[in-house]
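ok here's Polysaccharide deacetylase:
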Amino acid sequence: MKKFIILFLLLATFSQGQAQSIRGLFSVSGSRYGRSTVAGVASNTVTITVTYASAPTSPSATFAALKYNKQAWFQYERDDLLSGTWTDYIFFNGGTTPDGRTYPGKTFTDGCGNKVNWRGSAVANARSNFNNMDFWGVTGRLTTQQVATMVKVGKWGVMNHGYYHELATTNNFYPLSGPTFSQAGWNIAENQKFTYAKLKSQDVEYLMRCVVVPTNYAGFTRGADSLKYLGSTSTNALDGYEGFPRFFDLNTANNGGNFAQEETLPVTGYSKFNNAGFIQYTRNFQDSWTPNVINTLKAQFVDLLAKSNANKHLGMRLGTHTGTYPEMSNFFNYADSIAADRVWFVGMTEQLEYREVKRLAQRTQSLNGNTLTVRVDLSAVPDVTRFRDISLLITGGPIAHVTVSGADAFSYDTVTGLVNVFTEKTKGFPVPQ
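and the structure:
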């Protein structure tokens, strides 16, 4: 067998798949995605033991630039907690939508033969500016249960769009505040508390770590940075920060400035508030899904693939309010048909958390005969980090076997040397104040 996956489960049982107990561990055929994982606080020490088929030559273990060792990344989100996000989720994850349409789902692989569903993000506000009504569950918006399912089952992200969508000039519900920046910061902080409480009511602990700037209001990027978020995104409201990827020119699909080289983005000195790793992403935002727009998006995706390779990892971001199917499926199906398992379809938070883990994890290795032991210390990773996943590239010669301790699950490929280590923190997050 060239490819294996081992899942560690403590005090849990599988609802599907065949499991065999091995000294308290469980070997399960298939992928951990869509299966049970350990609920609890993530481990801070991961040990990867690699057994080579013969004496290795210059063995090493390095972090892959992108999770699963993909060459490019693509991110999608729908704003304002709109109910169309549920259709997006079903289209990506598979199932039947409220209007009776059934979709098979979209997948790529983890680089080790196991399928992973595409993931995106819901973008959440808390209340209406105009009557202070709770948005969650009203007509045209996602329900709390739907958002909880997207997080718990689909591994989607939720992004902070502000407690209110508009600034104080449009209503009388804001508390007394000073400049726009203070309003933006209040919006972000209050929405974090509101969203945490909503999902906690469904026994899901979730902290938002990325901000989507509402409309084009100033202050939200600075607010996200000052509150130690991983990142913020907007088409053009950047608060003086440099935006990545470069703005998409819909008239020129191959303008050379559409994409950012993710692995070389600055990890220090970019923040204005000593928030190492903070990033301001731009995005291609579309509410007009005409054939011309769809064809341009297709051309941009082709451009993404053409400019990405094993040494250059580029990204494309897309957002909408009003995207509908089959117009959107036209683009998504095309992207799926040409991606050739090279693209990581991922929510913004998960991607930036992988980048965060790479930056903060301390890695050591030792060799004893044919066995390479790699220890990864995650103690510097913040307690608010949900996905503590690691993708390692192992070199040195043919691999016979890999074992991992201190994680929820892992997968590996003895031919390519890719080892994925999965740990998702689901409980024990600090309650936002």
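+1. Residues 1-41, 247-263 have pLDDT under 50 and may be disordered.
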